[in-house]
């Protein structure tokens, strides 16, 4: 159920009113129980074309509206004015009422008739609200359908010859596209492989219509098993990217297959400031990328026109991000691959960059053992909180709350509740979470941060930096420049020798990156945090950890450690220092995830060259079966190839 606020109808951000946190949710992410369903979606979208007529039915959860009777209204969306000019505006408007005072039993069936007054409105949604409200009344509890093409209310000219009507619309769109500025060079290049696409979490996120984690039901992307969308819209035009991959992990392109992915003039998830086209979440994407697909591909046979303007992007311009990680006791692996252990107690700078004013900070606490007597501590530390900000974005902090084994996420020092949604679009960043297990933060620069607590006593952390951060980072994760020898650099510019540094040297190095209260991003909302971290030293000089654990062959724990850890040095280290196999197992799992991430980010072959020896460079190529580029599109196959509307994929 939603409230209709016309003044903020297209706001796609969180905002505070007094002490109340209101959430504006992209319509594709509204839970199915809280929106209406267009029964037989195919019939709705083809209504009026040959052999598609009769009744249409919409259903809803009647218990969501505490009323005996409802009104079913038609609302429309369109954009007017010259694109990319000050006159370009969006309008979301009540059009007319289909049925008044209909019994609220969760279903309404009707026979559509052309709407002479409103048949130029081709995109819209149904709103179901109490019959006590007046037509089009704002600020009322309501259940909405998904946005959809209003084929069923188009004029008699469409019903007489839908193919001719759509062909004319397709050619009008073709003419308009040729007059609009190109956006293809501005959007992110696609990752070359499926593994890269899933690993580059700072720049790409799962396209819910083709998700390998949910069985790869890619009805609208023939030949693909998984698709991703760019997280951020392009800076000037607000455009979006979509990338799809087959079972072998290779890209599926429109030049090879009708199931290939297509870029978007309007990013499906929108872009700041959101209320201005083409940055309206969902609807701008519909206007410029979806309705045109109906015109050219679904209602007529002019797909070549559509793909001329929406060709799949290759990966020649793609560069994988660089990864750094921290986990366990804690062990840190820098962007250039140096690994070391730093067991300081306090708050430290992990990454700083003047390029985007990026700051990622970590707080450590003494490790509590996972087995044995509850609350037992070891003479080692682990990360208990990670805080971050870029430019003037919101501040996000992920922490292990006191007396809790879960994760808590703070937004600008206030706890977030994920009971309604697990994806949030915040100021300067996106946030996605599996509640209690992991949190992924995606900054507007493409920086990705993942914080998790998988069977571990402490947090594990991975940071992904795009190529533009080369020579623009410092902190415990080092300088990202391809030279590991300068990774252990102090604030004053001097460096430790990476080959001859002792654990004590590394302890001094880590202490140098302690933050100050005036630069801290952390929240201090308990007496313990106030006393220990705000009023206490940022690096506790009185805490002396175990630097080098001894391995006694006669120790019964050693045999169990070898069986668990095998050759993993971090797992063995943590078992010996904590004498807790559960802690070591958590470290081992975190290290394995990091290793898998590095393997996934390895470059693929973006091109193949004929070499002097007569052989081709790069990975072997292969043909896609039945991957013609015919204009004839099966009615159900490509219907939503370019959409981001979850409900049509469920």
From TrEMBL:
Keywords: Disulfide bond, Membrane, Signal, Transmembrane, Transmembrane helix
Localization per Swiss-Prot or TrEMBL: Membrane
Domain AMOP stretches: 162-310
Main location: membrane
Listed InterPro entries: AMOP_dom, C8-3_MUC4, Epithelial_Barrier/Signaling, VWF_type-D
Signal peptide segment: 1-27
Domain called VWFD: residue spans: 322-521
Gene Ontology cellular component terms for the protein in this record: membrane
PANTHER family reported in the protein's UniProt record: MUCIN 4-RELATED, SUSHI DOMAIN-CONTAINING PROTEIN 2
Name under which the protein is recorded: Sushi domain containing 2
């Amino acid at each position: 159920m939603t409230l209709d606020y016309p003044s903020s109808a297209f706001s796609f951000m969180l905002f505070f009113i007094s002490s109340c946190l209101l959430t504006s949710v992209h319509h594709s992410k509204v839970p199915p129980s809280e929106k209406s369903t267009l029964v037989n979606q195919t019939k709705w979208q083809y209504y009026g074309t040959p052999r598609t007529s009769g009744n249409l039915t919409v259903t809803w959860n009647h218990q969501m509206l505490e009323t005996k009777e409802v009104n079913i209204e038609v609302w429309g969306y369109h954009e007017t004015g010259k694109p990319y000019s000050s006159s370009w505006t969006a309008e979301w408007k009540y059009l007319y009422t289909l049925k008044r005072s209909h019994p609220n039993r969760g279903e309404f069936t009707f026979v559509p008739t052309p709407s002479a007054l409103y048949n130029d409105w081709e995109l819209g949604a149904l709103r179901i609200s109490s019959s006590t409200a007046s037509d089009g009344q704002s600020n009322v509890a309501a259940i909405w359908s998904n946005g959809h093409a209003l084929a069923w209310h188009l004029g008699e000219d469409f019903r007489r010859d839908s193919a001719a009507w759509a062909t004319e619309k397709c050619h009008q769109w073709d003419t308009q596209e040729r007059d609009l500025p190109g956006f293809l060079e501005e959007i992110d290049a696609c990752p070359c492989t499926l593994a890269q696409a899933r690993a580059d979490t700072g720049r790409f996120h799962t396209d819910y219509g083709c998700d390998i984690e949910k069985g790869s039901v890619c009805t609208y992307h023939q030949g693909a098993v998984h698709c991703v969308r760019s997280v951020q819209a392009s800076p000037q035009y607000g455009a979006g990217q979509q990338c799809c991959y087959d079972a072998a992990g290779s890209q599926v392109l429109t030049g090879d297959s009708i199931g290939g992915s297509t870029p978007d003039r309007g990013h499906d998830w929108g872009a700041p400031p959101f209320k201005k086209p083409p940055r309206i979440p969902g609807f701008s994407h519909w206007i410029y990328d979806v309705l045109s697909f109906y015109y050219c591909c679904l209602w007529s046979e002019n797909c070549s026109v559509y793909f001329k303007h929406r060709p799949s992007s290759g990966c020649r311009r793609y560069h994988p991000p660089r990864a750094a990680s921290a986990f366990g006791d804690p062990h840190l692996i820098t962007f250039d691959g140096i690994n070391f252990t730093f067991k300081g107690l306090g708050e430290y700078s992990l990454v700083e960059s003047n390029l985007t004013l990026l700051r990622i900070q970590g707080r450590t606490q003494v490790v509590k053992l996972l087995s044995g007597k509850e609350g037992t501590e070891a003479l080692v530390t682990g990360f208990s909180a990670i805080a971050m900000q870029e430019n003037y974005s919101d501040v996000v902090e992920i922490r292990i709350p006191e007396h809790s084994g879960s994760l808590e996420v703070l937004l600008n020092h206030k706890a977030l509740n994920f009971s309604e949604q697990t994806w949030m679009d915040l100021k300067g960043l996106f946030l996605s979470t599996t509640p209690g297990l992991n949190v992924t933060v995606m900054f507007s620069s493409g920086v990705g941060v993942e914080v998790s607590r998988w069977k571990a006593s402490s947090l594990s952390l991975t940071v992904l930096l795009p190529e533009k951060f080369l020579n623009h980072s410092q902190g415990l994760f080092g300088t990202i420049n391809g030279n590991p020898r300068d990774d252990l650099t102090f604030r004053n510019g001097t460096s430790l020798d990476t080959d001859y540094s002792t654990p004590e040297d590394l302890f001094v190095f880590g202490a140098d990156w302690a933050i100050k209260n005036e630069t801290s991003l952390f929240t201090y909302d308990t007496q313990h945090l106030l006393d220990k971290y705000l009023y206490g030293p940022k690096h506790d000089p009185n805490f002396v950890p175990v630097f080098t654990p001894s391995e006694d062959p006669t120790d019964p724990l050693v045999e169990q450690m070898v069986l668990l850890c095998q050759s993993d040095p971090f797992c063995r280290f943590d078992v010996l220092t904590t004498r807790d196999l559960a802690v070591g197992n958590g470290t081992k799992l975190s290290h394995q995830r990091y290793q898998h991430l590095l393997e996934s980010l390895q470059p693929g072959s973006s091109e193949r060259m004929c070499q002097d020896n007569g052989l081709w460079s790069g990975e072997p190529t292969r043909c896609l079966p039945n991957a013609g580029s015919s204009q004839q599109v099966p009615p159900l196959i490509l219907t939503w190839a370019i959409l981001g509307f979850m409900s049509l994929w469920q």
